[in-house]
Design goal:
Number of helices: 21
Number of strands: 14
Distance between the termini: 69 Å
CATH superfamily of one domain: P-loop containing nucleotide triphosphate hydrolases
CATH class of one domain: Alpha Beta
Helix content: 55-70%
Strand content: 5-15%
Shape: elongated
CATH architecture of one domain: 3-Layer(aba) Sandwich
Radius of gyration: 38 Å
Structural class: alpha/beta
Strand order of the largest sheet: 8-11-12-5-13-14
Length: 609
């Protein structure tokens, strides 16, 4: 996992290296400051200038008044050194923080980019594996968790052990006995602190799945806002969201309650060890002739101040290490979820040296069986044999669940067949470069999707370099020019996300124009005129027949009238082609087709009556 995630560091390797280097210098300067203060206090406490006279904060310094000039010069020299070291430590701390922020933010940026690019390469089968809400959570919450963990790893995780080791080492130079106390307490705390996050780990493991569930609730409510309001179900949806939100809150409360034990334990250890050190140090400073002091060594007042500061540094470094451990504990599950996406290989890839050009719009299905699960016992399409000549118009009818969409999705290779083959222009679709194949096979999907941007920008999805004249021509073919021209901003009208500021029929016609502008060899309409009236539907078909005579047109429809004039009509039932022919032929030979026609015509007759 670490190896895969580290690939996203890339151009941010230098700040990632500089951050720990700057931290090391900062720590070196920081741990030396108590040592210099200790030496200064010991100097002032000693007999260098005599044993009577000037005192500092109630402690006899041993400096004679006559020697104040030299003594103060010594003090000022030390003060200058301390100020310089503090300033340098601050400077390197700022540099480290800046480098760390740049590295972690850049790492997160690359990670999101890699995830997004990976998702773009996914096949429909891969996308079916992950829910949209789960992918959104991985791109946001999970990446943020990993970013925070990385920030701590390159700074805090370097600073803490360095400070621990340096402070402990310098504590040994002052008193090996007290330094051993520090070491013993540290070992006990490490064991205790390791057990606490391990219990929280199980909770973090499940909480991210609940994040997915909450995001799913939000996504459904936003997407289906009109339905929610139409059925007055706001309270019901709010209750569902509250349950999901409360579920996450409860888990995080449990986890944070467990992790909250860290602070009281650490601070108890800090104050306990300071009191213990002061008790031992008092004896070691005052009673220098005792057997205990003879065995452990004596101390001076300055040594005690340094040891107290080192105790604080040692224990505070442990607190920071625990913070890092907790953050890593939280981010491990996030990292696993991110790596799961990054390591998922697309079910569909372009072959090496794949064909770059589609010769004709001929389509052939040869003994095709297809299953979404890849299981021959759970087939969505069975024994499909079909030939479509370039330029033909083919209609497809069938009941709900008859696999009409599944059939046409095999042509641009949105899915691969389970057995058998699909050929376009006489070549197996698996031999084409995917971009080349899909550029010549345009689809207007059942779910019409428009993106935020102007109408022009949406139409140019079909042809990025399309001129304004080409856009207008395509929209005229799709019978969209009239309503576009009625907008105040015309073709520069801004489309809201999902096309919510245009009607369903207008949205469908814009999607048709987007497909037509690509001038494809094959164009597929997956029930994409269901929201337009029969007159507009007929005008669209007439325009296409006149302007794209050589393009193969495959139309999935619910209305017989939409495919009645097709060169060939397919009737699907249960994933099989149960009838094939022209309208007149099917009226004579297919009971299913005849029933659909009669039912629809009866409704029309009743409506006219």
């Amino acid at each position: 996992m670490v190896k895969i995630l580290s690939r996203s560091i890339r151009e941010y390797k230098l700040p990632s290296i500089l951050s720990p280097v700057f931290v090391a210098v900062e720590v070196f300067l920081e741990v030396l400051i108590p040592m210099i203060c200790s030496d200064l206090i010991n100097f002032l406490q000693g007999d260098t200038f005599g044993v009577h006279g000037f005192s500092l904060v109630g402690v006899s310094t041993g400096i004679q008044v006559s020697d104040l000039g030299d003594g103060l010069g010594y003090v000022f020299a030390y003060a200058g050194i301390l100020i310089a070291m503090a300033a340098l430590s601050l400077t390197f701390g700022i540099l480290s923080g800046r480098a760390c922020a740049k590295a972690s933010a850049g790492f997160a940026k690359n990670l999101r980019k890699d995830l997004y690019y990976k998702i773009q390469d996914f096949s429909f089968g891969n996308i079916d594996t992950y829910s949209t809400s789960s992918l959104v959570t991985r791109l946001t919450t999970d990446v943020t968790n990993v970013q925070n963990a990385y920030m701590m790893i390159i700074r805090i995780a370097v600073r803490s052990p360095l400070m621990f080791i340096a402070a402990l080492a310098l504590a040994f130079t002052k008193s090996w006995f007290i330094a051993l106390i520090y070491l013993g307490v540290a070992i006990v705390l490490v064991v205790l602190m390791a057990l606490i996050p391990m219990r929280a780990m199980k909770i973090f493991h499940r909480v991210f799945k609940k994040y997915d569930n909450m995001n799913l609730r939000v996504q459904e409510d936003v997407r289906g806002a009109r339905v929610v309001k139409a059925f007055v179900r706001e309270d019901h949806e709010i209750e569902k969201f509250n349950r999901a939100s409360d579920d996450i809150r409860d888990d995080f409360t449990k986890a944070e309650t467990i992790l909250a034990l860290n602070s009281p334990i650490i601070y108890f250890a800090i104050y306990g060890i300071i009191l213990t050190v002061c008790a031992f140090a008092t004896v070691m400073i005052v009673d220098t002739d005792s057997a205990f002091v003879q065995a452990t060594g004596s101390l001076q007042v300055g040594d005690l101040t340094a040891l107290v500061q080192y105790a604080t540094m040692i224990l505070m470094s442990m607190i920071m290490l625990i913070m890092v451990f907790v953050m890593i504990t939280m981010s491990v599950e996030s990292g696993r979820r991110i790596v799961e996406v990054l390591t998922t290989e697309s079910d569909l890839v372009s072959p090496e040296n794949g064909r770059k050009e589609v010769a004709t719009g001929d389509v052939e299905f040869d003994n095709v069986n297809f299953s979404y699960a890849g299981d021959v016992n759970k087939l969505a399409l069975r024994n499909v044999n079909l030939k479509i000549k370039a330029g033909e118009t083919v209609g497809i009818l069938g009941g709900t669940g008859s696999s009409k969409s599944s059939l046409v999705q095999l042509i641009p290779r949105l899915y691969d067949t389970t057995t058998g083959s699909v050929k376009v222009g006489g070549v197996d679709v698996r031999e084409y470069d995917l971009d080349a194949l899909r550029s010549d096979v345009a689809m207007v999907l059942q779910k019409n999707v428009l993106f935020s941007g102007t109408i022009k920008e949406n139409i140019r999805w079909g042809k990025p370099d399309a001129t304004d004249e080409e856009i207008v021509a395509a929209c005229k073919l799709a019978q969209a020019d009239e309503f576009i021209s009625s907008f105040p901003d015309g073709y520069d009208t801004y489309i809201e996300q999902g096309g919510t500021n245009v009607s369903g029929g207008q949205r469908q016609r814009l999607c048709i124009a987007r497909a037509l502008i690509a001038n494809p060899k094959i164009i597929i309409f997956d029930d994409s005129t269901s929201a337009v009236d029969t007159k507009t539907d007929a005008l669209i078909r007439k325009s296409m027949a006149e302007s794209l005579p050589n393009a193969t047109k495959i139309i999935i429809a619910q209305r017989v009238a939409s495919v009645e004039e097709a060169d060939k009509i397919l009737v699907l039932d249960g994933g099989e082609i149960v009838a094939e022919g022209t309208h007149d032929e099917l009226m004579r030979s297919s009971d299913i087709y005849r029933d659909i026609y009669n039912i629809q015509n009866k409704k029309e007759d009743d409506g006219n009556a």
